[in-house]
Design goal:
Layout: H1 13-17, H2 47-55, H3 62-79, H4 83-86, E1 94-97, H5 104-115, E2 119-123, H6 139-159, H7 161-176, H8 191-194, H9 201-235, E3 242-248, E4 254-258, E5 265-269, H10 270-274, E6 282-288, H11 289-304, H12 307-321, E7 323-327, H13 342-358, E8 361-364, E9 367-370, E10 375-380, H14 392-396, E11 400-403, H15 409-417, H16 423-432, E12 437-440, H17 442-458, H18 465-474, H19 476-481, E13 489-492, H20 494-506, H21 508-514
Parallel strand pairs: 1-10, 1-11, 2-7, 7-10, 12-13
Antiparallel strand pairs: 3-6, 4-5, 8-9
Length: 515
């Protein structure tokens, strides 16, 4: 399913020699500044601004932040160039080396969220070479396109949300207070052939006048009821009332087929294949008015959005702005040795990854997608293996290598207090829902940081994830008793930390299982 790549990032080739340009000739070009847009590839954040935004959530690792910030800025610089030159400039992929829990995944995830770029994280160990049971490497590109589809759909839905909400409100009004319909007179089927039977003109005129008056009164009353109902719906007075609505069934019949490698499932929508031959299914749901309005608004928004535009924009954004994070790359590092064994499969996975990383075309159910300008960020601890254990071709596709520093006691202290989503702030917010306010004293922060470093040194080093296990153990009793406690304010100091965790930390064997 993967077409041949363009071979960028090799030993130079036509790129280094300028292609058909004569030796020594310099091509002139004019910079084109992209305007303000929602396209993440055209985000004009400077590297310093990108690092400042990452600092809000990630402590330390300055060199890694600088590398990803430069890679992101280069995407903007590329968009300023003529299209003829844009195709020649490819992103420089990054290899992050460092132990678990130091922020490798978080940096890539926050970077993608910062610029609203499609992002997908995959584990290298989930893939196997062609012919083995496991996931096909092409699936990471398909997952990226699916992520882009969801992102574009959310963005498009936001642009039509007001119109969709008005349409949903109108459907609710029609359902709860329908307009009266004019009764149809029973007609003799022979009237179509022989004409209507003669009747008394005076009688017919009198009956028509009476019926029109009655209908006008009924219609006027119905419109008054609908206007009053619309006001109450807009004010939210009926949000908790139950209503039965009819919506389209969003689970179309699917067929599972297999890709060329035989191990990647793809869904095909029969309704899309057969067009309008298959009638659309509907189902009735009993919901509250608030929920019904949300469901109807989502359905109306789907009618207002062009699916073809979503697909085209998603494929383009995945190609130009997509970020694929390949974790645990060190687990597939290893050269082929004599005899059968797992190392053969490891090298096979590397060779299957190679065309995806260097630039190829992957077939998806939305059409072909090129990976030439996607940014690949790989990561691994590389404890037992080294980056040089990767096959040379794959090593060359990750020219930027950055080592992340292990976390120190001071890093743990900063992680507990500085980030916007610090774990201490999360627990404060959670317990405030039960009316309990907790405060962490400075000595408690220091004690937790020292404990995290000590346990990481004595057992397996899992980085900042150790803080979550310690905090959960520290606040276990308080979280359990919070709904019934009468304490409105709880101060957690070093003595509190010692009383809750000293027994576990003294018993090294027990700390291996608990912390």
């Amino acid at each position: 399913m993967t077409a041949s790549g363009n071979g960028h990032g090799g030993q130079g080739g036509s790129e280094g020699q300028g292609g058909s340009q004569g030796e020594g000739e310099v091509r002139s070009f004019t910079l084109v500044r992209p305007g303000k847009t929602s396209d993440p590839a055209k985000s004009d954040l400077t590297p310093r601004q990108i690092v400042a935004n990452l600092d809000k959530y990630i402590v330390g690792q300055e060199r890694a932040k600088r590398c990803v910030a430069i890679a992101l800025r280069n995407r903007y610089r590329r968009q300023c160039l003529p299209e003829s030159l844009q195709e020649d400039i490819v992103p420089k992929n990054i290899l992050m080396i460092g132990p678990t829990g130091v922020g490798k995944t978080l940096i890539a995830r926050r970077l993608a969220k910062l610029v609203r770029a499609p992002f997908v994280k995959v584990e290298a160990t989930k893939f196997t070479e062609v012919g083995y049971v496991g996931r096909d490497v092409d699936s990471m590109v398909r997952d990226l396109v699916e992520t882009a589809i969801r992102m574009i759909r959310v963005e498009k839905t936001a642009t039509v949300s007001e119109e969709a909400d008005r349409a949903a409100l109108a459907r609710l009004v029609d359902l709860l207070a329908p307009l009266p319909t004019r009764p149809q007179a029973q007609r003799n089927p022979f009237q179509a052939l022989f004409g209507p039977a003669p009747s008394e003109p005076e009688t017919d005129l009198a009956q028509d006048e009476t019926s029109r008056t009655v209908e006008a009164d009924r219609l006027s009353e119905a419109r008054l009821r609908r206007a009053e109902l619309r006001k109450r719906l807009q004010a939210g007075e009926l949000d908790n009332e139950m209503v039965e609505i009819e919506v389209s069934d969003r689970v179309p019949p699917m067929v599972e087929v297999f890709s060329g490698s035989g191990n990647e499932e793809m869904g095909i929508n029969l309704q899309d294949m057969l067009g309008g031959l298959m009638p659309k299914k509907t189902k009735k749901r009993k919901l509250t008015v608030r929920e019904a309005r949300r469901v109807l608004a989502a359905e109306e928004a789907g009618k207002l959005i062009d699916k073809e535009d979503i697909t085209a924009e998603a494929c383009r954004r995945a190609e130009q702005s997509g970020i694929i994070f390949i974790d645990e790359l060190d687990k597939i590092a290893g050269r082929e040795r004599a005899g059968a064994g797992p190392d053969v499969s490891r090298e096979g996975v590397q060779r299957d990854l190679l065309p995806i990383v260097e630039g190829s075309t992957v077939m998806t159910k939305y059409g072909p997608v090129k990976t030439d300008h996607m940014l690949f960020i790989a990561a691994g601890a590389f404890h037992s293996a080294k980056p040089s254990d990767l096959i040379p071709e794959l090593q060359g596709r990750f020219p930027i290598r950055v080592e992340l520093d292990p976390l120190t006691r001071e890093d743990f202290r900063r992680i507990l207090t500085e980030p916007q989503d610090a774990v201490t702030k999360q627990y404060k917010a959670l317990l405030s829902a039960d009316g309990v306010g907790i405060e962490f004293a400075e000595d408690a922060i220091g004690a937790i940081a020292a404990l995290a470093q000590e346990v990481n040194e004595q057992t397996e080093d899992i980085g900042a994830r150790r803080l979550h296990t310690i905090m959960e153990r520290l606040l276990e009793d308080l979280s359990f008793e919070a709904p019934e406690t009468r304490q409105e304010r709880v101060v957690i100091d070093a003595e509190y930390v010692k009383s809750k965790l000293s027994d576990i930390t003294r018993d090294r064997d027990l700390s291996r299982f608990v912390l």
